[in-house]
């Protein structure tokens, strides 16, 4: 068999069996300070898929940064077949400012596939597409809840592709949401190129949440095993992920201060009380009822709401038994990994 070729990213050539950290130059800060996009490449000796794992496209969603850091420390990578391209912080500008956005308030994940002559977000998106995505066969992008919201570990993917479905199941998060593609998102641009990609969501922004980090790391490794990049492992009996039927946000029915003791992963029946919204004087109290039977896959952790604010992200499943199974899986995992 002919020897495997090297891979080139930026102006760095990585030989088979080697790993390298590459700083891809992007637009300087106005202080004249150079800005780079840090990329770490593990180029296996043997042929195999080329997988990108990216995080912090939203600069304040840092759980993925920790997932990538732990992934790159795994001794298991010595037996890698194919190539892992890790980009722990895609939106470096937002990461510095602890912000979701670029300095001009643009959302990088609405700026793909981007253009070299466009806005800073568009320029960064284009670099990411040309230098990373164009060289890959598969991708995983990692996010967390935004705007004071926290998410149950979940995969968002378009399941009409059998390859995406196979990888989504291999990831092993409790929930899979068959999510439509957002315009100009990385996922849309990658899928348009015919490259299967998963989006993993877990935890909240600007925090390290141990449970979503542990589920995410295990999930990325499981996908790499499924792709044949890492050795297969005898799996103990696992609870399969549940593909939820639909999801909907439960919104505040009045403005006020919210009281709730409903953790992520809770199963609620239709018309069950999810929260009470009170006013600061204490004269009025409004109950927030579940509009349908479902499982809480996202929630607001700031107790101050205006009427109409999204409070709980509720998912319905095919059966009550499916919901109970996800809930048991979440409970079992969070007891092992610590609540996050
Ligand atoms: Zn995000």
Describe this structure in words.
The chain has 340 residues and is α+β, with helices and mostly antiparallel strands. It has two domains: 7-226, Aminopeptidase; 245-337, RNA polymerase II/Efflux pump adaptor protein, barrel-sandwich hybrid domain (OB fold (Dihydrolipoamide Acetyltransferase, E2P)), CATH 2.40.50.100. It has helices spanning 63-72, 92-97, 120-131, 162-171, 186-192, 210-226, 320-337, and strands spanning 7-9, 12-14, 18-26, 35-43, 46-55, 81-87, 138-145, 149-157, 175-178, 197-204, 242-243, 246-251, 256-259, 267-268, 273-278, 285-289, 294-300, 304-305, 310-316. The strands form three sheets. Strands 3, 4, 5, 6, 7, 8, 9, 10, 11, 12, 14, 17 and 19 form a 13-stranded mixed β-sheet that branches. A four-stranded antiparallel β-sheet has the order 16-15-13-18, with no helix packed on it. Strand 1 and strand 2 form a beta hairpin. Helix 1 (63-72) crosses helix 6 (210-226). The radius of gyration is 21 Å and the shape is globular. The model has no long low-confidence stretch (mean pLDDT 94). Bound molecules: zinc ion.
What's the shape? globular
State mean pLDDT (0 to 100 scale): 94
* Class computed from helices, strands and strand pairing: alpha+beta
* Strands, count: 19
Order of helices and strands: EEEEEHEHHEEHEHEHEEEEEEEEEH
Ligand inventory reads:
zinc ion
Under CATH, the topology of the largest domain can be stated as Aminopeptidase
Determine the number of helices (DSSP H or I, runs of at least 4 residues).
Answer: 7
Q: In this structure, how is the largest beta sheet organized? A: 13 strands, mixed
Instruction: Supply the CATH superfamily name of the largest domain.
Output: Zn peptidases
Helix content: 10-25%
């Amino acid at each position: 068999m002919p020897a495997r070729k090297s891979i080139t990213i930026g102006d760095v050539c990585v030989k088979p069996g080697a790993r390298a950290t590459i700083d891809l130059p992007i637009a300087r800060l106005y202080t004249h300070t150079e800005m780079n996009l840090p990329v770490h490449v593990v180029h296996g000796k043997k042929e195999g898929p080329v997988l990108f794992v990216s995080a912090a496209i939203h600069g304040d969603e840092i759980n993925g940064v920790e997932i990538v850091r732990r992934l790159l420390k795994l001794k298991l990578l010595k037996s890698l077949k194919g190539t892992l391209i890790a980009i722990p912080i895609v939106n470096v500008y937002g990461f510095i400012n602890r912000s979701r956005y670029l300095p001009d308030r643009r959302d990088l994940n609405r700026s793909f596939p981007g253009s070299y002559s466009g806005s800073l977000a568009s320029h960064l998106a284009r670099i990411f597409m040309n230098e990373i995505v164009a060289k890959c066969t598969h991708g995983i992008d990692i996010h967390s809840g935004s705007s004071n919201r926290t998410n149950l570990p979940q995969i968002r993917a378009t399941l009409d592709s059998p390859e995406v479905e196979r990888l989504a199941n291999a990831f092993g998060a409790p929930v899979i949401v068959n999510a439509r593609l957002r315009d100009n998102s990385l996922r849309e641009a990658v899928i348009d190129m015919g490259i299967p990609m998963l989006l993993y969501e877990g935890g909240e922004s600007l925090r390290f949440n141990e449970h979503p980090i542990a589920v995410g790391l295990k999930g990325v490794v499981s996908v790499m095993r499924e792709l044949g990049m890492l050795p297969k492992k005898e799996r103990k009996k696992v609870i399969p992920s549940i593909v939820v039927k639909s999801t909907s946000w439960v919104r505040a029915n009045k403005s006020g201060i919210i009281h709730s003791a409903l953790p992520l992963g809770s199963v609620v029946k239709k018309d069950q009380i999810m929260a009470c919204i009170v006013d600061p004087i204490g004269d009025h109290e409004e109950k927030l009822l579940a509009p349908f039977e479902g499982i809480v896959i996202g929630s607001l952790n700031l107790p101050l709401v205006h009427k109409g604010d999204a409070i709980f992200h509720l998912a319905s499943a095919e059966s009550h038994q499916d919901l109970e199974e996800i809930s048991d899986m979440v409970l079992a995992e969070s007891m092992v990994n610590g609540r996050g």
